[in-house]
Design a protein that fits this description.
Largest sheet: 4 strands, antiparallel
Strand order of the largest sheet: 1-2-7-6
Distance between the termini: 52 Å
Radius of gyration: 25 Å
CATH class of one domain: Mainly Beta
Structural class: mainly beta
Helix content: under 10%
Number of helices: 1
CATH topology of one domain: Immunoglobulin-like
Strand content: 25-35%
Order of helices and strands: HEEEEEEE
């Protein structure tokens, strides 16, 4: 599991120092998000038969979101727009990212590529993928007594 919430152990000392100075002083920025790769994503299994992907994307128009699955790779593309009324603003600090984004994730092979649900509510894109039939556990009936034919045409008895 990858937990990217809060300040993680992988945060560099330089990044922590930058955040400390930003929190202590107002830092002028150009208003653009730096290296924004898209919305934060949670991927988890629910029960034994379902994979849930949730992309947190508040402020994004659902019609601008494109979701595709190709060769087991889920790709979420979209765009956030700035309001025309915001164009005359001079931001001192802006953390709301704008522009185009693409987010790609490798889905586990045990799930189908076709989600059974794709919904956008309260800024969260939620995709539900069912487990593939061939990946579900199956119970094999074992008979008692007698020989059982094998798939190659021979019986299970020894001569």
């Amino acid at each position: 599991m990858i937990d990217r919430s809060g300040i993680g152990q992988a945060m560099s000392l330089r990044h922590m120092m930058d955040r400390m100075f930003e929190d202590a002083f107002v830092v002028l920025r150009n208003g653009a998000a730096e290296n924004w790769s898209g919305p934060a994503v949670d991927v988890y299994e629910s029960g034994e038969d379902t994979l849930i992907v949730e992309a947190y994307s508040p402020g994004i128009n659902p019609e601008s979101i494109d979701v595709q699955v190709e060769r087991g790779v889920l790709t979420i593309r979209g765009q956030t727009d700035t309001n025309e009324s915001e164009s005359n603003r001079h931001y001192l600090l802006r953390e709301h990212p704008t522009g185009r984004f693409t987010r790609s994730l490798q889905l586990p092979a045990s799930y189908t590529a076709d989600p059974t649900e794709a919904a956008y509510q309260q800024g969260v894109l939620r995709l539900v993928f069912p487990k593939a039939e061939e990946a579900k556990p199956r119970r094999i009936q074992v008979s008692t007594g007698g020989a059982t034919p094998l798939s190659n045409g021979q019986d299970g008895s020894t001569s």
